[in-house]
Amino acid sequence: MEITLPRSDDFHLHLRDGAAMADIVGHSARQFGRVIVMPNLKPPVRTVADALAYRERILAALPEGAGFNPLMALYLTETTTPDDIARAGDEAAIIGVKLYPAGATTNADAGVADLARVRSVLEAMQRHDLPLLIHGEVTDPDVDVFDREAVFVDRVLGPLRRDFPALRIVLEHVTTRHAVDYVRASKDHLAATITPQHLLYNRNALFAGGLRPHYYCLPVLKLESDRQALVEAATGDDPRFFLGTDSAPHAQGAKESACGCAGIFSAHAALELYAEAFERAGALDRLAEFASQRGADFYRLPRNTGSVRLVKTDWRVPDAYPFGEDRVVPLGAGETINWKLSVESL
Q: 11, 265 in Cβ contact below 8 A?
């Protein structure tokens, strides 16, 4: 058994930098035509110049002959200016601006603590039609970690959309039925990405046989009912739910530590993992739309030409992959995946 997909895109990807980035970028280039590269480096990718320099480093690290287009996002800070947005709007390689609530996730300490301080920037984004890509969690310590997305939707996203009704927004890596229902009930300017881990696992995976750090990401895995809602959204007919892996590699020691980093590395088998989720849902016929069409349409990009082929065959996921001077443990390490990307499709 095999399936052929139009060349797909990953609309949420962490590539890191330096030697670590050089070791992992080939995984994504093998599977995707375009990716949106997250800007949460140290220091963050704040300006057009930062983004274009980072993009050149990515292109330089690609395997020879890779037909791969990294699209860049700027990191929204309280020092970002409307002029920064105007320059970004004129640059084809920059696709959007990323909002990290300050302290919400990895390298989010430079994020925005108060949206009132960036109103002029959001107005400029709306004017230049530059999408806002959101890590949708509140950071209030009084809010339970499993409720932070839902509270963000009610407390932050609703007022934001009311104040900027023409601003295109992507609520990235949605994890709850509450967020899915909100997107479905909203108008066309709001979309959402869904990761493979949130389609395949619920929060029990964090504790299966002990604490499992390689299943820890932010937003964290949620209830089984939430996972089912995400599957329904991904395999359904609403065109505003599309592929974004949020593949976020960390060195093995940084994950397996007393205070392990949040992030799951899935770029090694992204399309294969999505195929598993769609097959389990009896919806393989919807995978092409989710992976290859909806995101391009929302971002107003031409759909990719070319195709990739997935073959139904078992293979064992390696225990780790090279990651600069370290190793990164992939999602499903040591386990069997039932689909394999065919090298002939490239």
A: no
Query: Is the N-terminal amide bond of 63 cis, ω within 30° of 0?
Result: no
**Using CA atoms, how far apart are residues 163 and 40, in angstroms rounded to an integer?**
26
pLDDT in tens, 259-287: 999 999 999 999 999 999 999 999 999 99
Each residue of 184-212: pLDDT tens digit? 999 889 999 999 999 999 999 999 999 99
Please state, as a whole number, how many other Cβ atoms lie within 10 Å of the Cβ of residue 210.
Answer: 7
Block residue for tokens 């084809």? 92
248 close to 15: Cβ distance less than 8 angstroms? no
**For residue 346, what pLDDT is reported?**
46
Pair 74, 48: CB distance under 8 Å: yes
Strands 69-75 and 32-37 come out as parallel
Residue numbers in the chain where pLDDT is lower than 70: 343-346
Residue with tokens 């890590």: 135
Consecutive H or E run containing 297: helix 294-298
Q: How far is CA 274 from CA 266, 281, 309, 329, in A?
A: 10, 11, 13, 19
| CA distances from residue 19 to 145, 183, 325 in whole angstroms, order as listed | 33, 38, 8
Spatial separation of the C-alpha atoms in residues 10 and 230, rounded to whole Å: 17
Looking at the DSSP bridge assignments, the partners of residue 243 are: 194
Looking at 9, 10, 226, 246, which residue is catalytic? 246
d(CA 278, CA 286): 8
- Nearest Cα neighbor of 132 from 180, 100, 91 is 100
pLDDT score, position 20? 98
Determine whether 154 is an active site residue. no
CB 321 within 8 A of CB 35: no
pTM for the predicted model, two decimal places: 0.97
Helix axes 48-61, 18-31, angle to 10 degrees: 70
Residues counted in the chain: 346
Rg (CA), the chain: 19
